[in-house]
Write a structure and sequence with these properties.
By secondary structure, the chain is mainly alpha-helical. It contains nine helices and five strands.
């Protein structure tokens, strides 16, 4: 075989392997996103189909509760993961109650399961982020390298979360916090496996990628009427790109909580 022919065969093998790896990675990501897919599917279906007896928001709550029960019952989620997801549900619900009553966004439809203008199903949208993180962590055998000390991680996560509340009364320090994230995690990496091959990525880049895709998901959710921003009351419009920074910081909080709980259990940290 000539040198040129050998190089061609090598390139073809590398390309074929890259396609297999990408396909497997996509499949694992799709399985990890099962809960978010059900959420978006339910939002779309209930906007087109009017269900009897109960308002739409109440049906969404019932659907999400049943989905959560099924995921644990079927073994797709463990009981430990359910505890993490429940924590995110409560954290998200607290943020929703505050933001809605500050006029940041609204839930205009009626529902028996609304508290202070916030439907209880909304907490599942935050819980679905935790579900994705937990599922992807397990399926891709995620490992964290050079993870910072807890005395840096916990106050940083708390400050990011509190800024969602305090910026209504004080200055918004999100960009200062984003800068701190870069400093604290400058040497940190996340590794993951696909078909036995390990890959790695800077943790800061993973934050940005997840935050961007959640912003895309937010556009889908508002299009299907999950909630409304003030500029969407008359007609739907694209969520401002500036919201990426908010989701980026929320993803960081989510990631820090999951990673801290993993560390406390002595898993996936180097």
């Amino acid at each position: 075989m000539s040198k040129e022919a050998a190089l061609k065969v090598t390139r073809e093998r590398r390309f074929s392997r890259a396609i297999r790896q990408l396909t497997r990675f996509g499949w694992e990501q799709a399985l990890s996103c099962l809960f978010p897919v059900v959420i978006f599917g339910s939002l779309a279906a209930t906007q087109v189909i009017t269900l009897p007896f109960l308002p739409r928001y109440d049906w969404l709550l019932i659907i999400f509760l049943l989905m959560q029960w099924w995921m644990v019952r079927s073994g797709l989620e463990t009981r430990d993961e359910l505890k993490v997801i429940t924590l995110f549900h409560l954290i998200g619900l607290a943020l929703e109650l505050f933001k809605v009553n500050m006029g940041s966004w609204s839930y205009p439809e009626e529902g028996y399961s609304k508290i202070l203008g916030v439907p209880l199903y909304s907490g599942f949208m935050y819980a679905s982020v935790a579900s994705y993180l937990c599922q992807a962590w397990r399926r891709l055998e995620v490992n964290l390298v050079n993870w910072p000390a807890l005395y840096l991680v916990i106050p940083l996560g708390a400050a990011i979360y509190l800024n969602f509340f305090t910026h209504h009364y004080w200055i918004d320090i999100r960009w200062w916090l984003a800068g701190l994230v870069i400093v604290v995690f400058w040497r940190s990496w996340v590794t993951y496996e696909v078909n036995g091959t390990q890959y790695r990525m800077p943790i800061a880049m993973s934050f940005v990628l997840i935050g961007f895709f959640i912003w895309v998901a937010e556009n889908i959710a508002t299009f299907f009427g999950a909630w409304q921003y003030p500029n969407q009351t008359e007609t739907w419009s694209l969520v401002h790109l500036g919201k990426v920074s908010s989701w980026l910081l929320l993803v960081i909080v989510s990631f820090l909580i999951v990673a801290t709980l993993k560390r406390l259990k002595g898993k996936s940290i180097q």
